[in-house]
Amino acid sequence: MESQPKQRLGQQIKETNAFSHTSLLLGVLSSVVSSAIIPALGAGRIATVAGAALSPLLMAVFTTRGGGIARTIGIGALSGIALVISIGGFTVPEAIAGKGSLTANGSGTFVSTERPLPSTTQPTPAAEPTTKPETTNPPATKTGPKVDMPKTRKCPEVKVGNAEACKQIGVRNAGATTIEIATMGLEGDQAGDFNLTKQCNGTLKPNKGCSVRLEFRPTAVGVRKAVLVIQLSPGDVRRRVTITGQGSDGGDPTGCQDGFVPRRATPEDSVCVTPEEQAAARSQNQAHLEEERANPDGTCVDGFVWREAVPGDHICVTPDERTAAQSQNTLNPEHSNN
Questions:
Q1: Residues 6 or more apart whose Cβ sits within 8 Å of residue 141
Q2: Helix (H, G, I), strand (E, B), or coil: what is residue 125?
Q3: Into which CATH architecture does domain 147-248 fall?
Q4: CA distance linking residue 310 with residue 265, whole number of Å
Q5: Smallest Cα–Cα separation from 232: which of 289, 172, 303?
Q6: pLDDT at position 141, please?
Q7: Are 88 and 102 in contact (CB under 8 A)?
Q8: 121 burial level (CB within 10 Å; 0-12, 13-18, 19+)
Q9: Measured distance CA(288)–CA(1) in Å, rounded
Q10: Which of 166-175, 177-186, 216-225, 260-269 has the lowest average pLDDT?
Q11: Which carries the bigger pLDDT value, residue 123 or residue 98?
Q12: Domain map of the chain by residue range?
């Protein structure tokens, strides 16, 4: 008999329409509206909670029907569910965002959800030293006085044992101030084949110049080489001039026919060629040195090959010059008296 009254109460609550979709939606909506409006007006959390609870309660009074305890239970249940949904609908997003209330300048609509800001305290800067550290400037590159002078000088061909003057080497002060100049001498393994006959020492005013003179006295056949050193001040800068000359034996050991001379591509080379071909071989020897056609290991740089006019001839020349030397070797019997 006791279950029958419970059945009737449950049926009566259901008939109050308190748990219908429409009643629940209107209850939640009214609670949400109150939760948004009240804090926006500047009220506190207590007023917001009261409004969020009162709004669905009033809405439940109008949306439910019937009477007695069944309706009271329905109104209370509907108001409570709407309030819980409203509080969760605001609190959860605010906690995730961590920026306080979604509807006002508060730390949260119902509870504090604003995350604390990170400390903005700046570290105390270290006290600056009372004396500044000394700064060391990099040493300036010595460029030296501005002068006009050649980088190379070629002396004439001279017979071994004889001497002949080379073209003078001029030095001109191209700067705006007076400079000091000194001829330091000759450097290199073959420097003894060259002799200074006039040096350039003293002061040079702007646009003034002097000259260095020397003679070439070869001690062996072939290309001879030395380096002239000039010192300039202020700056104590040294400039160098490469000096070269060709030593010859002056004879005709091969007995070349009239109009032909020994080629002398190397000191041992006695192939008879025309004077023009002899001069070309000497120019090739000179270019080999001045143009640095050889690699450190003795091979030729790209574009050049060993001439091989005679065995062991490793002067670097063009392929056409190598072919010409081989043709001269072929014609040697026709140009020699031997």
A1: none
A2: coil
A3: Sandwich (2.60)
A4: 8
A5: 172
A6: 47
A7: no
A8: exposed
A9: 130
A10: 260-269
A11: 98
A12: 3-97, 147-248, 261-335
